[in-house]
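Q: Predict the assembly, please.
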Amino acid sequence: MPDTKKDYQKILASVQKPVIGEAGKTGTWSKLKPIIDLEKCIPVKSGKFTCFNCWIFCPEAVVTRTIPPEIDFDYCKGCGICMEECPVKAISMREVKSK
Amino acid sequence: MVKLMDVREEEFIYPGTRVCAGCAMALIYRFALKALGSKTILTVPASCLTVLHGMQGFCTTKLSVLHTPFATTGAAASGIVASIEEKGLSDEICVVAFAGDGGTADIGIQALSGAAERGTNFIYACYDNEAYMNTGVQRSGSTPFAASTATTPGGKTRPKKNMPKILEAHDIPYVATANGSYPIDLYEKFQKARDIKGTRYIHILSACPPGWGYDPKDTIKIGRLANETGFWPLYEVINGDLILSQDSMKYLNDDKRKPIEDYLKAQKRFAQIKPDEIEQHKRYINAQWKEIKNRIENQ
Amino acid sequence: MYGRMPCKGDFNERGEIEMNQSKAKNKKIKILTGNHAAAYAYRHARVGVVSAYPITPQSPVVEQISEFIRDGKLKAKFLMVESEHSAAAACCAASATGSRVGTATSAHGLMLMYEMLPWASGTRLPIVINLATRSCGAPWSVWDDHSDFITVRDVGWIQFMCEDNQEIYDTNFQAFKIAEDPRVFVPTIVAYDGYILSHTMMPVELEPQEDIDAFLPPLNHHINLSDISQVKGVGPVTLPNIVKREEGTAPGYYEFRYSLQKALENSIDVILEVHDEFAKKFGRSYGNGLFKTFNTEDADTIIFGMGSVSAQARTVIDKLRKEGIKIGLVSLRLFRPFPVKYLRDFFKDKKNIIVFDREIGYGYEGVLCYELKAALYGLKDCPFIKGFIVGLGGRDVKSEHIIDGVHRALEQSKKGDISYETEFLGLKLDELDFLD
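A: Predicted assembly structure:
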C-alpha cells in the first residue's frame, strides 16, 4: 500500500513530456497511402530542390524534403492532400496492406 | 517571399497527433511553430488545438505549452509575459497565444482586448475554423453569414465578426490575416511578427473537413478558394498602414476574383444557401475590396 | 494586539507610539489599514507578479502596490487586467512560468475568479490571494460578512482568517512559505474583514527585509515554464484512467485530485511548523496556528467563531464569566483544511459550544456550525452545539447579540433541546412597519 504521507508528493500537476505517436500509429486510420511516381516527380526528374508541394502541404509533416520525398506510412493518415497538390499528378492514393 | 529551401526544415510537432485527416489547423500550427523557433512558450485554450497537443502525460510538441481555460487566453499570455519580464527574459523568449475562433471572438474577446489594450508583448494567433468545432460544430461569432452549424441549422443570420478590424482599433503594431492554404505566406508573417515588440495579431482561416463538409483531400483547395473569390483577403496592417499580401494582390481587380458560388457550393455547410444570401455575400465581398482599395490609395 | 485602537497610555511625551520590544529589535511600527498591511506584506515577500482588479473594499491594496512599484520599493510586474477572471488566469499563468504571484479581491471579484480556483489548486500553483471579505449580492452590498470566504471552500485552497492587521501582515509570509513548500504546493487565501480591518488603522510591526528574506527563500517552482530547456505541456486533457506507454505511466485525473486532497490534509503539519518557526523568529504567535483560544483553560462553554465575530466575542467573555458561566473563546484561524483532529481533541471534554457564523450555507445553516458538528461526529459525550447567524451584509455584530445568543443556547442545552432551527441575531424585522 503506498505511503499516503509521502507518495502523494510525487504527483503534482498534470504535466506532459513530448512523445512520437501520442495518438498511436495514426497510419492505421486509412488503408490508402500516397505512392509517388518517381518518373513524374519534379525534384527527382530535375535533381533540384524545387516544388516539394507534398512536403509543404502535409498537415502531419510525414513527408521529407528530400530527393526523392519519403512518406512515413506509420503516421500518414491518408488525407490525400499531397495527391491533390502535386502539380504533375505524380501521387496516387493506393491501398497498402498493413504489416 | 521566403524561398522554399529557406523555410526551416526542423519540425516542432511530432507525428501521430489526434487531429482529423486533412486538418488545416495542423498545417497552420506546423508552419507557425517552424517560424517561431525553439525559444517560444505557447498558451492554448480549450479548443481543437488542445487535442492536437495530446492527452495526459504525453504531448506532441517540442515547445512548452500552458493549457488554460476557454475564456482566458489573452490573460494567461499576459501572465506569462509578466513573469518573463520580471525574470528579465523578454528578449530571449517569445510568448505566443494560439486560440480558435471561439476562444478569440466570443468567450475570449475580453481577455484578448485587455491584453492588446495594455500593449502586452506577445503574438496572438487565431486559427479560425468558423465554429466551435471541438464541441461539435456549434456557431461562433466568426461563423460566416448563411453557414449551417449545429446551432444554426438553417444558416447563420448575421455576418462574420471582423476580428482583424477590432484588433486594429486597439492601436497595435501588427495585424495580419493568413490562410492555411498559403503556408509560406503564413511562415513569413510569423517570422516578421516574431521580431516586433508589442501586441501582434494574426488571424488565420483554417478549413475544416468535417465542420465545413468536404473531402479532406480538398482542404488546401477550399482554403485557396476563400482567397481566390475575395472572401478572405490576405493582408498586413503595420502601424496602421494596410499592405496587401502577394497572394491576394491580383484580387484587387474585381474581374480577377472567382465567383463566390465556387467557394460556397463546394462546402456542405452552405448546401441550403438561398440566392439572396449568395447576393449578400457578394455585396459584402465587394464592399470589403472597395475599402481595401480606398485604404491603399489614401494612406 | 487584537482589534485594539491605540490609546492614551501608548503615546510618549512627543506624541509617538512606543513599543518597547520593537525599539530593541530595530523594527518599524507603522499605523496601517488592513489593506496596506497586505500591500506591505507583498512588498516584503518580494512578490514578482501582481495581477489584480479593483473592487471595494480591496482597491487600496493594489493602489499601494502600484505606488511601491513606482517608487522602486517593489520590483514586480503589476498587470492591471480588465477583470478578476483575467486576474486569476494571469496569476495562474505567471505562477506556472515560475514567478511568486499574489493578488487581492473581494466578494464578486472572488466569485468571478471561481473558474480559475480549481485550476490553480489542480495545477498546484502556490498563489496567494488576500481577500477583504464582503457580502455577495443581490442585493448589492459593499459591507462585510464572510459569505465570499466560505463560498470557495470546496475548491482545494488553504484558507486563513485574520483577526487584526498585524495578523494580516504576518499570515501573508506564512502563507507563501506554506504554499511553496514542496510537501504542499497548494494556493492560499488570506482573508480579513472588509472595512472592519481593511479600512481601519492599527499599529503594525514591520520586519526588516533581510529577516523576511531569511524566513522566506526564493520560490523553487515545480513547473517553471521560463526554463525552456525543459519542455512541458501543463494542464492537458486528463483521462479517467491512467495511461501506460513505453515512455512512462501517467496518472489519471483521480490520482491528481487524490494528491491534492492528501497535500491539504498533510499541510496542517507544515502550517504548524511554519507558524512555530515564525513565532520563534519574530516573537508573534496566533494560538497554535490553527485556532486561538481565550480564557478556555477551565471553560466548559465555548464560543466558536472567526475573524470579526471572535474579535467581538472576546469583549464579552469577562461579562459572561461574571454571570458564573465558565466560558471561553475559540477563534478559528485555519478554515481550510478544516483542522478536524485538533478541534476534536480540544472539544472532546467541553459541554457547550455556541457558534456564531457571519455567513450562512443557504438551505442549511451557518457553515462553521455544521462543519464543526460534522468534525465532532462520533465523540463520546459530544458537546451541545448551537449556531447563530450574525452580521450579514455588514449588520453590526454587537456584544448584546453575542450575550443573547449564549444565554439562549445555554437555555436550550439545559432542556436538552437539540433544535436545528437557524436563528438570526440582530434582525430588525419588528421595526419594519409594513410587516404585521
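The two ends of chain C are 46 Å apart (CA to CA). Chain C touches chain A at residues 122-125, 182-183, 185, 222-223, 231-236, 238, 245, 247-248, 250-251, 253, 255-256, 258-259, 262-263, 266 (CB under 8 Å).
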